Amino acid sequence: MALLEVKNLIVEFPGRRGTLRALDDISFAIAPGEILGVVGESGAGKSLTGASIIGLLEPPGRVAGGQILLEGERIDHLSHEQMRHIRGRKIGAIFQDPLTSLNPLYSIGRQLVETIQTHLPMSADAARQRAIKLLQDTGIPAAEQRIDHYPHQFSGGMRQRVVIALALAAEPKLIVADEPTTALDVSIQAQIIQLLKSVCA
Ligand SMILES: Nc1ncnc2c1ncn2[C@@H]1O[C@H](COP(=O)(O)OP(=O)(O)OP(=O)(O)O)[C@@H](O)[C@H]1O
Ligand SMILES: [Mg+2]
User: Fold this and answer.
1) Which of 5, 129, 152, 175 is the right S-S partner for 69, CB 3.0 to 4.6 Å?
2) Is 59 in the pocket of ligand 1 (CB under 6 A)?
């Protein structure tokens, strides 16, 4: 069975001067372990496709037709609360700017532990150990010390690794990444792509 199925997706923005149809009949499927890359010119609808899947379309944008199924179950008509639970637990998200995903006021350890404990039944100690392991797995050196640092204390590439660790925190089945390397140096881009590939293997 497909992990994710997008069937005849239509996304519209109702406006004063009529309705703009931004996505018109998009269909694709992703199998477990599969990586699907989406390319297209600016404004083609790549980001909207990702936002629809993770339930973060900005109003007044809305799914006006079609279906989105995760493991065979529709997720395109769920409440914000239900979708928040699926995001993180079943679907991880990675965006262009790591700072949009990180809270500047909290240490990265606190953010990781909170995310882990929101979705997995774990003691604070066990969650912290898992957080350290995630940071190690995503290539953060000296993870046991770095876990108590704040987002501004990391370089851009390291921050994106932290975001990936955060996206992986609750063992999601699917990761939606929208330009995860655009904001990074070319030399770092390849490392992040390699890391994402290894996560899917
Ligand atoms: N809030 C909005 N209100 C109205 N139209 C919107 C809104 N957001 C996006 N659109 C329209 O939806 C279309 C697709 O936008 P989207 O951001 O998905 O493009 P993209 O393929 O990700 O482009 P890029 O490569 O520049 O990131 C655009 O043509 C845009 O005009
Ligand atoms: Mg985009």
Assistant:
1) 5
2) no
